[in-house]
């Protein structure tokens, strides 16, 4: 395996690294070494996860070897796990830092652990999950939510769970657990075959690890965070992967909505507790305070008083609701005698009530004591009190708004009279940075946020209220001819495409948009994704298209029928339970050869936009029909904008000298939230190194610079705005025609199920799932129609297209073959030092010569200087991604060609042309623009900004016309020996086309 020395750290990477990957690892190491926070954006398909793991674990190993066995961080033994008192560990901690890797879902963590298995690193690891994921108890495993937690705790407290009872003994006799990568399914298998509880095994393992994998809520939720015993927070590194939604997750975790149905259920549960206590006292004659019905009578009275007080608030405007500053919550509750002090007693009563209800529903007086499914709604009141009285103070209330909104029940409810007005009490947090502040108080070393779509970075940093000195917006590894990005401001009849509320309801707009989609469905091969701003907008357009045609169309069919002529439609359902069926339907229609593919109508921020990969045929183009702005009159959106505008005003008036300081305004936040949702949606198509596709913005507002500035960094160089609809159709048609005809590796048939890879939902049917290519930079394989196509290809098969010019021994083994020493650097790997000057390493200079693909080229000094600039540029403070150093019109490539005096016999008996002669002939045969393109492609060959295959193919295509076949033949002199067979194939193809 290659080993890269970056910032003095030896990073053992399983494959040859791209430039953008080295840059990414450089930023990770900068963050870790300096103890700074980092915002790192790198597009899907650039190996982000692998880079994160390799760089962080390489840094961790600089402190000492990974922990092994069951010795704990300081050599202590395993703590008992029979109860929830696992936080009492007295084990002394080592000085080694711990890496906590968090992602949104369990399935995403599963993919990360799979990437860990592909590396040579074997840290002591653990993975945390919920009881829902891990419980194997025959009764408790059937429960869900807090009922499951309560049932588990009840049985463990009574020592009635045989799985939990043997955890301690199992851990003592299997202290090697965690030395090799495993996931939740592996723990569950251990539990089912050998008996110990997977949930408590993971808890025990987490006390002494090098790296801990956990879902977001284990870090963001204070209660879950406190349960992580043994974590040295002041020596921990936090990594939030897929962090594009982190701000909303943090804000939601610190907020609550008390629904009227929930409050009614809480009152009913309090009454049930009173009855259970009376029953217990009558049969047990117990005076236990836990079974004092008076406590639950007080709880019930408080809840009823709260319900009444909410109903008595005067709401003058149903649209605006009842709004007060956040601090008002304390005044509101104090009138019910709920204060910081009394809330503690109230929380104790609710905890006792939850256990009492669980015990009552477990049939304590019956044989077997079976747990039954009952949801404790009282837990919502407990969570509410925790949020309000967090830390015992009120300082956080300034970031909140108190709001009561009136609505009417629209569906039947056993606890609610149909049609009766109901009110929801909300306390919304508008500062997502509150959760991040908790980490600062804990003194964590670094916080790294990363995703494929973090842009715009500045607004995210301001929202989280954290300093992020280290930032990166990485380019993609694809070449320019793999992507088509265009803004479509008008339709075929010249009518503007604008989905704003002023025009989206008009017939003209719906007609024009429908006709545009019909045309693109005809042009785009295979899978087409169409994203609408909202479900409402999607439903209205589809309903219109099913019944109407364009007023100027001569076709008698409706717009919808014309779409179906080219592609079979699938519509994203609102209900999550129906989503797996929609994915199955889409995959089946892609396989149907009677049409040219399928079209998936979906919604920004929906499951399709964030939960799935549409690689290769599954997604050849994405159409975005408009900006998915949130409803401006929505109370939460309106109050958030007001909050930001007020903060902006106060900041500027408080410090007049800093009027030019950057503070996020309400309008900026509003636009950026929509832009981030668009970025997430368009990221569905280009999923790996050799994928290709189109991104089509069908809204004239995307022409505006302030909208384009919000787009992902890697997309910006490719965006083109078209003023004429005909030009759009022409260029897009040419793009797909060229890709289909010129890509010899594109299979004629494939199993589309492998192209649709879910990221977040375990509910999706297993037969249509494939490995997520979240960290893959894939190489296409030529397959037959009978061979199942797998898009998660081995990284090792790829020749890097955009990597640093580095030399190393490729003592690479297959990722399935373990290295001789898991804990050591590969002995066969030659370390490439990226922190030293290139000229001090002869092997780098030699490789720079080879990389130009010139025989006897004499440009060693220049090659080394270019490499030095590339490596040193990574240390520039404002550096954003790898960018080639601009060359003059008379480029280094031309100078090198003119110095090449070789005239030799090439393969197949062809006579090579000298460098100067070839350049002279090229200037004669090519136009000025074409000659410029040729020079740029030669630059790409030298600097490896494009895959070698793509560069050679582009050059061969340039020389493919009948009058230029001499150039096609003569260019062999510049092709290296190992790439010559590929170039000969291109020569034969284009020569045959001209005969």
Report on the architecture of this protein.
- With 995 residues, the protein is an alpha/beta fold.
- The strands form 5 sheets. It has a 7-stranded parallel beta sheet. It has a 7-stranded parallel beta sheet with strand order 16-17-15-19-20-14-21, with helices on both faces.
- α5 packs across α16, α8 packs across α9 (198-205) and α31 packs across α32.
- It is globular and about 105 Å long.
Structural class: alpha/beta
Number of strands: 23
Radius of gyration: 31 Å
Kindly, what is the distance between the CA atoms of the first and last residues, rounded to a whole number of angstroms? 46 Å
Q: What is the tally of helical segments?
A: 36
Beta-strand share of residues: 5-15%
How would the blueprint of this fold be written?
Elements: E1 3-6, E2 9-12, H1 19-34, E3 38-41, H2 48-61, E4 98-103, H3 106-117, E5 125-127, H4 131-134, H5 145-157, H6 162-165, H7 167-173, H8 184-194, H9 198-205, E6 211-215, H10 217-220, H11 222-226, E7 236-240, H12 246-253, E8 256-258, H13 260-284, H14 293-312, E9 322-325, H15 328-334, H16 340-361, H17 378-388, E10 400-408, E11 421-429, H18 433-442, E12 446-451, H19 457-464, E13 470-473, E14 483-487, H20 507-523, E15 526-532, H21 535-547, H22 559-566, E16 568-571, H23 579-591, E17 597-603, H24 607-611, E18 612-614, E19 621-624, H25 635-654, H26 666-682, E20 693-697, H27 705-708, E21 719-721, H28 725-742, E22 756-758, E23 831-833, H29 842-851, H30 860-872, H31 892-899, H32 915-925, H33 928-943, H34 948-958, H35 965-970, H36 980-993
Parallel strand pairs: 1-23, 3-12, 3-13, 4-6, 4-7, 5-6, 7-12, 14-20, 14-21, 15-17, 15-19, 16-17, 19-20
Antiparallel strand pairs: 1-2, 8-11, 9-10, 10-11, 18-22
